[in-house]
Design goal:
Layout (H helix, E strand, L loop, with lengths): L6 H5 L9 H8 L5 E2 L11 H10 L12 H11 L6 E4 L1 H13 L5 E5 L4 H9 L3 E5 L8 H11 L3 E5 L11 H10 L5 E5 L21 E6 L12 E4 L2 H5 L1 H4 L7 H12 L1 H24 L3 E3 L5 E5 L4 H13 L2 E2 L11 E5 L3 H17 L2
Parallel strand pairs: 1-11, 3-4, 3-5, 5-6, 6-7
Antiparallel strand pairs: 2-8, 7-8, 9-10, 10-12
Helix pairs in contact: 3-11, 4-11, 5-6, 12-14
The protein binds pyridoxal-5'-phosphate.
């Protein structure tokens, strides 16, 4: 006899949504030369952020402020909302789990796009929800179909990201606002804006925390270059935000992370400079794709999804040929999207290496 899992945990597959580059390196027995697969920001955090972390490293013996007070104040000021409209957590990933837990029990229908960000699906499965997926249309999340699915299933939760991962595409603010207007008042929308900073301003809806059925989430992992520190935030109506306090891990935040995020928010000049480099990197990846006869899909994120011009197995072969050549990239797996590979913006040197290896990878498949 051994301890019994709950029937829910017993029923879950033992899969994990991501295989990290470190695991691939261990398997390959050698490191990658270009780490362009995890949508990290290889330009790294601002020097001012690194200095702030160094200065406070010796304070690591203290727990972090469980209220995230200073960071919430700073975020609220930037967003033009009250601190009570903001919750801070260990990345968008953790906040997604907490949000799902608030609205999803066993069998609850939850709407998302087929092939969208898998961590959300992982949390839905973990709370016993029933995922109902809608295919992308023209490489974008299909807002109309998502809304129709919400209504058909009477789903209490719908999720999409704008700009989107894995395609990098986006909707304009007016389209998102129209979606919100049409959403049943009993359905919560999680609008994941992990890539909000690298998107055109016209893609971000006006901030309105009066609606109880919209939670928007952002992160320090992408434009701010702090993926390894794990810090994200959600903003929305006060009652819905305060519900996170009922279930969150109050001492989950890292003290250095709070300090890093605060310093990062203060250094908006660095952020602007990095965003310019990300945009230049996107253009460069698109040019590399074109030079190899491939089509880059326009992106508002820190990565570019490249249509390999053939089917899923072919794109997978391109991906594997790049990995063999020490270039870490990933690819969408859902039907139709799987014809692509996804390349994150990296340093000049990493993109040089990608530029050099891609033609060889493609030639090896002929
Ligand atoms: C759409 C989307 N949401 C959330 C995340 C993860 O954000 P965080 O690092 O804040 O958990 C990612 C990272 O790739 C993402 O693509």
């Amino acid at each position: 006899m051994e301890p019994l899992f709950t029937s829910l945990v017993d029923s879950l597959p033992s899969t994990v949504p991501f295989v990290g580059p470190e695991a691939l390196e261990r398997k390959r027995g050698r490191p990658f030369r270009a780490r362009l697969g995890a949508n990290e920001n290889g330009f790294g955090p601002a020097p001012s952020v690194i200095a702030a972390m160094k200065d406070s490293a010796a304070e690591a013996w203290k727990y972090a402020d469980p209220e995230n007070f200073d960071l919430k104040q700073a975020l609220a000021a930037q967003l033009g909302v009250a601190p009570s409209n903001v919750v801070v957590g260990e990345g968008v990933d953790a906040l997604l789990g907490l949000a799902v837990r608030q609205y999803v029990g066993e069998g609850t229908p939850v709407i998302t796009s087929l092939g969208a960000y898998p961590t959300f699906n992982f949390h839905v499965a973990g709370f016993g929800g029933r995922l109902v997926t809608v295919p992308y249309r023209d490489d974008r999340e299909d807002l109309e179909a998502l809304l129709a699915a919400v209504k058909r299933e009477q789903a209490p939760l719908v999720y999409f990201s704008n700009p989107d991962n894995p395609m990098g595409t986006w909707w304009g603010a007016a389209d998102i606002e129209q979606f919100i207007e049409a959403l049943p008042s009993t359905t919560m929308l999680i609008l994941d804006e992990a890539y909000g900073e690298t998107a055109p301003e016209t893609a971000l809806p006006r901030i309105d925390v009066s609606r109880p059925n919209v939670l928007r989430m952002r992160t320090f992992s992408k434009a701010y270059g702090l993926a390894g520190m794990r810090c994200g935030y959600a903003f929305g109506a006060e009652k819905q935000i305060s519900a996170f306090d009922k279930i969150r891990n109050h001492f989950g935040m890292n003290r250095l992370t709070q300090i890093a995020a605060l310093a990062a928010l203060k250094d908006q000049d660095y952020l602007k400079a990095v965003i310019a480099r990300i945009i230049a990197g996107r253009d460069r990846i698109s040019r590399i794709a074109a030079a190899n006869g491939l089509k880059a899909i326009p992106s508002a994120t820190n990565f570019v999804t490249i249509d390999c011009g053939n089917d899923g197995p072919y794109a997978l072969a391109v991906l594997n040929a790049l990995i063999e050549r020490d270039v870490f990239v990933r690819k969408p797996m859902a039907p139709m999207l799987d014809r692509c590979i996804r390349v994150s913006v990296g340093s000049e040197e990493e993109l040089d290496y990608f530029e050099q290896q891609l033609p060889q990878a493609l030639t090896s498949l002929k």
